[in-house]
Amino acid sequence: MSDPATLSRHSTPSVPDIGSIHGHSEAARTIGPLKSLLETTKPGITKLVTITSMVGFVMATAGQAGSDLRRLVLIGLACTVGTALSAAGANAINQYIERERDARMPRTLRRPLPTRRVSPAAVLTAGLLLCIAGCGVLWAWCGSVPALLSLACIVSYIAAYTPMKTASSLSTFVGAIPGALPPLIGWTTASETPGWAAAAEWGGLSLFILMFVWQIPHFLAIAWMYKDDYAKGGYVVLPVIDPGGAWTAMSIGLWSAALLPATLLPALVMPDRLGLPYLAFASLSGLAFLYFAARLIRSRERKDARALFFGSIMHLPLLLVVMVAEALARGIF
User: Fold this and answer.
1) Do 189 and 171 form a contact (C-beta atoms < 8 A)?
2) Sign for the pseudo-dihedral over CA of 212, 213, 214, 218
3) Diameter of the chain measured on Cα atoms
4) Does residue 156 contact residue 174 with C-beta atoms inside 8 Å?
5) How many domains would you assign to the chain?
6) Residue 238 belongs to what domain range?
7) What is the DSSP annotation of 21-86?
8) Cα separations in angstroms, 204 against 35, 79, 232
9) Helix (DSSP H) and strand (DSSP E) numbers for the chain
10) pLDDT tens-place string over residues 268-314
11) How far is CA 330 from CA 70, 88, 193, 272, 277, in A?
């Protein structure tokens, strides 16, 4: 899938223009340190992680009859806060580790660390404290299993995925693991099944599978759009080592095709919570996703990678909204 000449050509990133970085720093000087520190937590990604955790929580509670509403609200709030803090901390540590590579890429050059709006020590300290606080909240209020799943997200993201990005294109699959675990954090928080058995329930596992599969074509579309940036940063993503795009196109096609059954799986394993409305929407949205993937496979042009990327960020939230709405409606009516 990769050829040594291509890898060699991209393995030595160009040295960033110090004057350019200084210029960005001057332009960003009006942004306060707290806002800059918040920016290192990648609020958009943190929000998505938190939302998927809450989807797991709601789907687990939707199958329970006669639950203590006050208790569910309290542990739901703790799950939300704990997951958000953990995700924010992991993202901050990731930006600390990748600060020099971020300075080489135009798409990340304006981040707080490359522009020197905040010190590396402050970002690392904040990241560690957020991770500890997040896991602590989950352990105290939600239980040991959600806390350990959150810790697994942090460790796999920082210690496995982040260093692997510069070594192998398989990092995409490793990185999909911490991105897919948050629904299990929510599920195990709310499940009536004790201990680790809750993490093995098919309801939660179906959400993990859905999130894992969705991330692959989503990320490959991003990597296709910014493959020159990734090459400058020294990242070994598939579009960088596959300049012709054949392997990338095939991977996008296969994983986009796999996404359709992955979106249907929750309804198959949770028939008491999901039925025809969700199945119909999941089928239509999955076919639409395949359409955008087919356009990219046929053209191999950046504009179609961009269309697939935007299609993916519309597909998942809408799917989750329909899923939660039907599950809650069935519980109410």
Assistant:
1) no
2) positive
3) 64
4) yes
5) 1
6) 4-332
7) HHHHHHHTTTS-HHHHHHHTT-HHHHHHHHHHHHHHHHHHHTT-SS--HHHHHHHHHHHHHHHHHH
8) 35, 15, 39
9) 17, 0
10) 999 999 999 999 999 999 999 999 999 999 999 999 999 999 999 99
11) 20, 34, 21, 8, 11
| DSSP secondary structure letters along 193-211 | S-GGGGGGSHHHHHHHHHH
**91 Cβ contact partners less than 8 Å away, ≥ 6 residues apart:** 40, 41, 42, 45, 46, 127
pLDDT 10s digits, 113-130? 999 999 999 999 999 999
Tokens of 16: 């960033």
- Name the amino acid, one letter, at 276: L
CATH number at residue 264: 1.10.600
Q: What is the pTM of this model?
A: 0.89
Name the 3-class secondary structure at 105: coil
Q: Of 207, 212, 173, 216, which Cα lies nearest the Cα of 53? A: 207
Is residue 267 within 8 Å of 282, Cβ to Cβ?
A: yes
**Tokens 């304006």, located at residue:** 110
